[in-house]
Amino acid sequence: MGHPILTACNVTEGDSSKTFYSYFAGRIALQWAMNIVFAVMDGTTMRMAKQYNSDYSRVAMFNQVAITCALLIPGLALNDGARNAAGRLT
């Protein structure tokens, strides 16, 4: 039949186009923000490389490592929240 937790959480009431368009608008805003942040971080990377007499590639590499670590933290928190919510449903 299906997974009991997934069927218990699957509510199909309402208009799915509202969900799609709200996701679409949120995704566009996120993409714009990511593009702006990338341009700002690239400029900051060049300034820091010049200020500290370092290689641009080295500063950019550590910048990407820091961004990756920063993006993993909310993912771990959301995963833990989903695990806790799944435990409450059973």
CA radius of gyration is 20 Å
Oligomer: single chain
Give the biggest beta sheet: none
Portion of residues in beta strands equals under 5%
Shape verdict: elongated
The number of distinct helices, counting runs of at least 4 residues, comes to: 3
Order of helices and strands: HHH
Number of DSSP-assigned strands:
0
Total of domains: 1
Poorly predicted parts: none
The CA-CA distance between the termini, in Å, is 17 Å
* Helix-strand makeup class: mainly alpha
What's the pLDDT, averaged over the residues? 78
Which percent range fits the helix content? Answer: over 70%
Q: Can you describe what's shown?
A:
There is one protein chain. With 90 residues, this protein is mainly alpha-helical. The protein has 3 helices and no strands. The chain has one domain (21-89). 84% of the residues lie in helices and 0% in strands. The protein is elongated and about 60 Å long. The model has no long low-confidence stretch (mean pLDDT 78).
